[in-house]
Amino acid sequence: MSESGDYTVTSWVSGHDFTAARKAYDAHAGRSYATAKSTGKTVRDLIAPKLVTQARRPLIIVVDQTGSMLDWPGVMASKFPYMEHEIRTEYMGEDAETAFLAIGDANNSREQYPLQVRPFCKGKEYETRLKELVVVRCTRPTNWRHCTAPTRSRCPTPRIRS
Q1: How far apart are CA 82 and CA 65, in angstroms?
Q2: Dihedral (CA of 143, 148, 152, 158) sign
Q3: Domain containing residue 77
Q4: Is 41 exposed, middle or buried (0-12, 13-18, 19+ CB in 10 A)?
Q5: pLDDT in tens, 91-136
Q6: Are 64 and 103 in contact (CB under 8 A)?
Q7: How far apart are CA 54 and CA 47, in angstroms?
Q8: Cβ atoms of 87 and 98 closer than 8 Å
Q9: Sequential DSSP letters for 32-62
Q10: Tens digit of each residue's pLDDT (9 = 90 or more) over 28-52
Q11: Is residue 30 within a helix (H) or strand (E), and if so which, with residue range?
């Protein structure tokens, strides 16, 4: 799919407006850090205690939340109906589930949320789970290490359980 324009929606995803979905995600991302700070969200709140899936072929999508990915999380958010359909019908099977992770710059003393891990989801939950990630926008896109997160915090060590 082209990344530069809107698309003709197919019958299995009628009524989806890519431009509106992208604008809604961009508006959310632009205020997600301020919202997280004002509600007292901690790094522990953003790490699922464990990742559990019943899918035979789970998918984990990792995004960089420092801003160096520029518009790509918004592109993904605008295409959720297609992404979910393709994952389910073409690649992973009907029981497919996806987990979203975000990584920041752990060596940046101002990084507030260096690791974020959301539980596995499917279908309409994609948008909800992606919007649970806190996006730290860069003040200088050409130098992604200068981000707006003002304080230092320690990231808990994730535990992988089977």
Answers
A1: 23
A2: negative
A3: 16-131
A4: middle
A5: 999 999 999 998 887 777 777 888 999 999 988 788 888 888 888 7
A6: yes
A7: 19
A8: yes
A9: HHHHHHHTT--GGGGB-S------SS-EEEE
A10: 888 888 899 999 999 899 999 899 9
A11: helix 18-38
CA–CA gap between residue 153 and residue 43 (Å, rounded): 8
DSSP reduced 3-state for 121: strand
Length of the chain: 162
Q: What is the pTM of this model?
A: 0.72
Query: Has residue 44 been placed in a domain?
Result: yes
Q: Which residue has the tokens 């808990």?
A: 156
Q: Show the tokens assigned to 91.
A: 């690649």
Domains in the chain: how many in total? 1
Q: Is residue 102 part of a domain?
A: yes
Average pLDDT, the chain: 76
